[in-house]
Amino acid sequence: xxxxxxxxxxxxxxxxxxxxxxxxxxxxxxxxxxxxxxxxxxxxxxxxxxxxxxxxxxxxxxxxxxxxxxxxxxxxxxxxxxxxxxxxxxxxxxxxxxxxxxxxxxxxxxxxxxxxxxxxxxxxxxxxxxxxxxxxxxxxxxxxxxxxxxxxxxxxxxxxxxxxxxxxxxxxxxxxxxxxxxxxxxxxxxxxxxxxxxxxxxxxxxxxxxxxxxxxxxxxxxxxxxxxxxxxxxxxxxxxxxxxxxxxxxxxxxxxxxxxxxxxxxxxxxxxxxxxxxxxxxxxxxxxxxxxxxxxxxxxxxxxxxxxxxxxxxxxxxxxxxxxxxxxxxxxxxxxxxxxxxxxxxxxxxxxxxxxxxxxxxxxxxxxxxxxxxxxxxxxxxxxxxxxxxxxxxxxxxxxxxxxxxxxxxxxxxxxxxxxxxxxxxxxxxxxxxxxxxxxxxxxx
Length: 445
Hints:
Blueprint: E1 4-5, E2 8-12, H1 19-35, E3 42-47, H2 51-66, E4 70-76, H3 79-88, E5 93-97, E6 106-112, H4 121-131, E7 148-150, H5 152-164, E8 174-178, H6 188-194, E9 198-202, H7 221-230, E10 234-238, E11 245-248, E12 254-255, H8 257-270, E13 278-279, H9 287-295, E14 299-300, H10 307-317, E15 321-323, E16 329-331, H11 340-354, H12 358-362, E17 370-376, H13 380-385, H14 387-400, E18 405-410, E19 416-422, H15 426-440
Parallel strand pairs: 3-4, 3-5, 4-7, 8-9, 8-10, 13-14
Antiparallel strand pairs: 1-2, 2-6, 5-6, 10-11, 11-12, 15-16, 17-19, 18-19
Helix pairs in contact: 1-2, 1-4, 3-5, 5-6, 8-11, 14-15
């Protein structure tokens, strides 16, 4: 793919991703879905709070209606809200304008198909051909030109669906929310208010520039202080487009995606709601998580990094829970993508049902220290296939004596080999990493 990666078309606003790209994406999508049926295409759009999202929204809408599609504007909404409403509203496709946890200078365009899943790659390839002027798309004329629809009721339906998913009351529970000055700012508090929680919100005053700035899931220390200072029972931090969630327990300690998978997986399995008794983490999940799964008699299947890979495994095998350390958790029985607010509600379900604090629920997992080293190389493939490097990995794991691991993987975007060691102590991580790094030195630049 020339433009679209695993998280859509990303780039600095009007540099890597410019307004003409957005217009062309709208033009192709509006024509493509209209040409496949006898009615106008219906496309739903959402955006996060960064300044350039409004510009890209206008360009996408212009392209869509110019090609004959009707554009339904959800305005500011989490990415999972677009996925939900695409399916619920029976739209031909959905578009989300966001750069997730990146700074406000960046932006991106994500496409989802009519089922709410990430857009099929063959469609993305055709869009790229149109961007590169390899194909032509006709302009609509007369009454074939599309229209725009202010579709706030779609966002309200998404909020209602989140509330309806919770069959419990949060009356008397003190909850802290860090909305990252992003898409969760207008959604998360109404959900928790409706469930009766005593809600204390921070970072929910977006100005176009402060999204993810020293707040949210990428800067969770602010929420940690907030929970402790306010004496809260639990806290939740979202990223810019609210498809991720990290939690903070009542003591101010971070509960990351690995711990969330354990807490929710153990609870769902106990109540017969974990499909095949299996959880889907990635290879980068903490070694301590895998040991805790074993001790709790929970099965797990690992995938490569990326929520796309996690969900592909879940769909193929019928699993119902998977996710990443970053807090991108997917409850496959009720959603088609990670949803940070849904994740926080599922955690609250466990806390209420088990009558335990978040720290007590996470206590059985002993996360191992992790040490990541990036080694710049001239040829990633040669380094990964090297007999000497593979032998060094085996040597490092023998050194750890079955009480840790070493994971070596090539970066998908940079000329780097990433070496991750996990062991009970930091010093052991360093020694294990050193063994592999020395074997990579002949491939360095």
